[in-house]
Amino acid sequence: MQLSINPDWPRRGLYAITPDDADTKRLLARVETVLRAGAAWLQYRNKHADQVLRDQQARALQPLCRLHGVPLIINDDWRLAAAIGADGAHLGKDDGELTVARAALGRGALIGASCYDDLALAQRAVAGGASYVAFGAFFPSTTKPSARRAPTGVLRDTAQLGVPRVAIGGITPDNARSLVVAGADLVAVISGVFDAPDPAAATRAYLACFAEPTEEDRR
Ligand SMILES: Cc1ncc(COP(=O)(O)OP(=O)(O)O)c(N)n1
Ligand SMILES: Cc1nc(C(=O)O)sc1CCOP(=O)(O)O
Ligand SMILES: [Mg+2]
């Protein structure tokens, strides 16, 4: 089952993922800066919040994302995505069945699947209705030091999947270009954006990594 992504949403660029921030007002201000600077997609992820705060924060992000024309994707919890009418959900290996999430969220939802370094998992995810697949971690991540590592080659080997491929894990403006050249459609970033001294400038630096490849890149 191959599903098309809403044409209003870009298929390349920076996929910003929220940091764990219990202060909703501050979180919104931080996200607004990054959306204004040109992030393409936003994932709401908060591994420390309880269900009440997650619900509040996800709902608060919704109008901000709408204003900027950016899809809001909820991490871990497709039920929360359905409850608030978010644009999609991101599911890892412990986050439930993709087919169940797809049935609940509908054909138009942007549903992503973590595939780590596993091509077969990515093929199954696409067959099960994933709108995009995510590979990583490509570099050591301060946010998730335990993340399973993936080689850059997994991006070269998955060009035929037919859905956007997202790269994640320790991505900085200095190493993002290598992943884009290898085939990443989007780079998903937490600390490189939100812990940067100037998150807007960092966002623009990631976007610059999506310029057309030069002859030098191809060599
Ligand atoms: C875009 C993107 N890719 C991968 C992940 C990781 O998902 P998961 O393995 O479920 O780990 P947690 O994020 O839940 O810690 C992601 N969230 N987003
Ligand atoms: C949430 C997450 N998932 C990963 C994976 O490899 O699946 S790496 C990761 C952390 C991403 O944060 P940062 O950009 O700060 O490294
Ligand atoms: Mg998860």
Automatic annotation (TrEMBL):
Residue ranges occupied by any Thiamine phosphate synthase/TenI domain in the UniProt entry: 14-193
Pfam families reported in the protein's UniProt record: TMP-TENI (PF02581)
Residues annotated for Mg(2+) binding in this entry: D76, D95
UniProt-recorded Gene Ontology molecular function terms: thiamine-phosphate diphosphorylase activity
E.C. code: 2.5.1.3
SUPFAM superfamilies the record matches: Thiamin phosphate synthase
Listed cofactors: Mg(2+)
Binding site for 4-amino-2-methyl-5-(diphosphooxymethyl)pyrimidine: Q43, Y44, R45, N46, K47, N75, S114, K144
Signal peptide (from-to): none
This protein's UniProt keywords: Magnesium, Metal-binding, Thiamine biosynthesis, Transferase
Reactions catalysed, as given in the entry: 4-methyl-5-(2-phosphooxyethyl)-thiazole + 4-amino-2-methyl-5-(diphosphooxymethyl)pyrimidine + H(+) = thiamine phosphate + diphosphate; 2-(2-carboxy-4-methylthiazol-5-yl)ethyl phosphate + 4-amino-2-methyl-5-(diphosphooxymethyl)pyrimidine + 2 H(+) = thiamine phosphate + CO2 + diphosphate; 2-[(2R,5Z)-2-carboxy-4-methylthiazol-5(2H)-ylidene]ethyl phosphate + 4-amino-2-methyl-5-(diphosphooxymethyl)pyrimidine + 2 H(+) = thiamine phosphate + CO2 + diphosphate
Residue positions binding 2-[(2R,5Z)-2-carboxy-4-methylthiazol-5(2H)-ylidene]ethyl phosphate: S141, T142, T143, G170, I190, S191
Coiled-coil residue spans: none
Pathway connected to this protein: Cofactor biosynthesis; thiamine diphosphate biosynthesis; thiamine phosphate from 4-amino-2-methyl-5-diphosphomethylpyrimidine and 4-methyl-5-(2-phosphoethyl)-thiazole: step 1/1
Xref: InterPro entries: Aldolase_TIM, ThiamineP_synth_sf, ThiamineP_synth_TenI, TMP_synthase
Cited Gene3D superfamilies: Aldolase class I
Cofactor note: Binds 1 Mg(2+) ion per subunit.
Reported function: Condenses 4-methyl-5-(beta-hydroxyethyl)thiazole monophosphate (THZ-P) and 2-methyl-4-amino-5-hydroxymethyl pyrimidine pyrophosphate (HMP-PP) to form thiamine monophosphate (TMP).
Family: Belongs to the thiamine-phosphate synthase family.
Name listed for the protein in its UniProt record: Thiamine-phosphate synthase
Organism: Lysobacter koreensis
Name of the encoding gene: thiE
